[in-house]
Amino acid sequence: MLTINNLSANVGETQILRDLSLTVKAGEVHAIMGPNGAGKSTLGNVLTGREGFEVTGGTVDFDGKDLLALDTEERAREGIFLAFQYPVEIPGVSNMEFLKAALDAKRAHQGLEEMSSVEFMKLARETCRQVRMDQSFLKRGVNEGFSGGEKKRNEILQMMLLQPRLCILDETDSGLDIDALQSVSDGVNTMRTPERGFIVVTHYQRLLDYIEPDFVHVLAQGRIVKSGTKELARELEAHGYGWLDSEVA
Amino acid sequence: MTDFQQQALQLAQQQTAPDWLQDLRAAGAERWSATPWPTRRTEHWKYTPLAPLQKTDFGGWGQAADAADIEWIDAEAPRLVFVNGRFAPALSSAELPAGVVRFADAGADQQAVIQQHLGQIVDSERHLFAALSNAWVEDGVLVHVPQGAQLASTVHIVHISTPEASATTASQRVLIVLEAQASASVVEHFASTEASQNGFVNSLTEVQVAADAEFRHSRVNLEQEDLIHVGGVHVNLGRSARMKGFTLAQGSRLKRIDYQVNHRGEGAELVLNGVYLPRNRQLVDYHTNIEHCVPHGTTSETFRGIIGDSARAVFNGRIHIHPDAQKTLAELSNKNLLTSGKAEVDTKPELEIYADDVRCAHGATVSRLDATALYYLQSRGISQAEAEVMLSFGFINELLREAPEASVQSYLRRRLGWLLGRPEPLARHLEGATS
């Protein structure tokens, strides 16, 4: 589904990703771990085409399409979803309007009719229940005044509504209490299907107790330096990232 | 006198006003002639050159037209419609709520009310175009609500400009008098049927809100591109009177709107919210001046502007708290969103405080569309154009939501894409936007 080949990217003058390669097949969950500054968040930003993140080399194939040739919104409509580490507050635009605009855009892309407001409300409420988010959050401004946990639940809510092909979770576990972590993970786990792939970016092993990965990769200095199964995550938890310095060098 | 000043006096001579308005007209003409024409050095016109007015040769008054293709804010509500300054009976409601009458149809009692208040609420020594409005007063609308009464329905006063062969002028005058404990809601709707028309509209609304009366007012300026509009809303608030005001202006060649509200009685409450949306090469200038003359008054004033393309906006908000006005609560906020690198705003919030026991705050900001928020929306599949409209909408939604009439809110929401210079369908899901 996703084939990243020798991807290099800069932020400003600084090279962050160096010849990164990764293949994600449908149905797989890949965890990407690594120390701060390794380029974990950059990967999500590059895959979604964020301005300021400049690809300097390599290719990304997504379902047979050249992903890097698409705009941010086109990538989203094709089925790429990034759950933000720091979801953005947009006062004055209700969560409901935002969610409907996103779903309408995706459906239009698929050649489907816009969902009626009534139908959409029903779907949004049902999804709210699934991520254990109070329905009042639908009427509030997008992420406006939400707690850290509420913001992350809102990300998962969007993910469930949009039903993406590839979900990228960027440090979704950061700043979450156990209860929120549980609902977020439940949301992700119900979405695990043979047609859908996941890239779970995290600093800590804790999240992987809830979302069990098929593969674990260690990202350091902009490239994947080690890959393995979930056992690798346990090792990292036990030994930290200090050993990487000697290994990479 | 400038050419335009002289031309304006000649235009006044072409009018046929009733005898009982002649004194006011004469006084207006005198004041208009005696007032020096504003220049760049005139504080109140510093950022708004009147060149478009001077450069135009106004051949005469606007002519009546029976048809004007606009959508009403509320088709069911009673309305008085003027086209090019002329009353349009075919477009107006046959039945109006008691107390609403054109000057031309005013009975003796109503004439007395008009003579008592018209030109008395506005200070034409400080407002040049109020002097012009006095000199030009011919017809107008009186809304008079007696003590303890409620205006039976919200009244819409609609002023439409249509294209004419040459540049013409129109004068729009409204007087609203709420006696003690009365209440009323009035919507003033200015529109033009096409972007290209060289007209000049001078409009003036005076409002007397007596003790414990409640006034709700919406003034929507949707005249397009080439129209010149200079307007003013001048209000006296009596003891414990309440006013909730909302105004929105789309830009045009020159659009200048003054709000002057005087807290004359103790304990009055004013909420005044405004939105301005100039784009292309348009200009919108809002000058507001709130006078707290007596104690215990409250003012909450919020204006927000979205300025696009090479447009310019001017906001000058002054709150003046006199020495006697102890225990005043006043807040003034002005926020501006520039959606293009060439857009410009001159904002000046002013608090002048001469009393020592008051709570006041004021502030102004100028910002651009938030790149992170745009990216967030786009990362969900929303197009850049639509994301920009959504962020702009979010910026002013809080104020739209506070508009005193639900019909005004939904009318403006439906037009938001158009107002922001985007094709309408983009903002389709914002139409039914919930609060």
TrEMBL record, chain A:
Recorded GO MF terms: ATP binding; ATP hydrolysis activity
A Pfam family reported for this protein in Swiss-Prot or TrEMBL: ABC_tran
Keywords, ordered alphabetically: ATP-binding, Nucleotide-binding
Transmembrane stretches, start-end: none
ABC transporter domain: residues covered: 2-246
InterPro entries named among the record's database cross-references: AAA+_ATPase (IPR003593), ABC_transporter-like_ATP-bd (IPR003439), ABC_transporter-like_CS (IPR017871), FeS-cluster_ATPase_SufC (IPR010230), P-loop_NTPase (IPR027417)
Cross-referenced PANTHER family: ABC TRANSPORTER I FAMILY MEMBER 6, CHLOROPLASTIC (PTHR43204:SF1)
Family recorded in the similarity comment: Belongs to the ABC transporter superfamily. Ycf16 family.
NCBIfam families for the chain: sufC (TIGR01978)
Protein name as catalogued: Fe-S cluster assembly ATPase SufC
TrEMBL record, chain B:
Signal sequence residues: none
Ranges of residues in domain SUF system FeS cluster assembly SufBD core: 166-395
All copies of domain SUF system FeS cluster assembly SufBD N-terminal, residue ranges: 14-157
Gene: sufD
Listed name of the protein: Fe-S cluster assembly protein SufD
TM region positions: none
Family recorded in the similarity comment: Belongs to the iron-sulfur cluster assembly SufBD family.
SUPFAM superfamilies: Stabilizer of iron transporter SufD (SSF101960)
GO BP, sorted A to Z: iron-sulfur cluster assembly
